[in-house]
Structures are given as structure tokens and as C-alpha cells.
Amino acid sequence: MSDSSTITVHLPHETTTKLERLAGHTRRTSGALAGDAVAAYVDRELAVIDAIERGRAEIRAGLGLSTDEVFGEVETVICKEAERIAR
């Protein structure tokens, strides 16, 4: 059994041309490069979704900060940085 599967992706001609150019320079197939790109995109997007879900769970558990608390912390960080730069 293979650890990969085949899908069909429709790309703009310009993207296909760039992908083929990159494949030529890297001596990899355009399919391998596209597979790596899709895998990286999926991992990145799922990490964002996981972070959002963790944040929502924290809010439901009462662990979140109010808007005023967040803005207070942001203002503190900005003021400290402004003071550091002014020195």
C-alpha cells in the first residue's frame, strides 16, 4: 500500500510555468514540489485552526482576558518599547 495518493489540482498557467521552472532548477519533479507546497500549507492552516480551538476552549473555561486587559497589556508593551527607543 502506498503512503501517498493522487489528486488533480487546477493551477493558473503562470503558476504552472513557475513550478516547472523551479523543478528544473531543483532537479525535482513539479509534482513533488507541489506535494511539498500543499503539505506545508495544510500543516500551517491546521496549526492556526488548532490555536483558535485552544483559545475558544480557554475562553469557555474562563481563562481568557477581557478586551480591556488585552489592550492594557498591549499599551504597556508599547510604552516600554517607546521608552527603550527614546533612551
UniProtKB/TrEMBL annotation:
Annotated region Disordered: the residues are 1-23
Q: Return the InterPro entries for the record.
A: Ribbon_hlx_hlx
In what ranges is there compositional bias, type Basic and acidic residues? 11-23
Domain of life per record: Bacteria
What does the record list as GO biological process?
regulation of DNA-templated transcription
Protein name per its UniProtKB record: CopG family transcriptional regulator
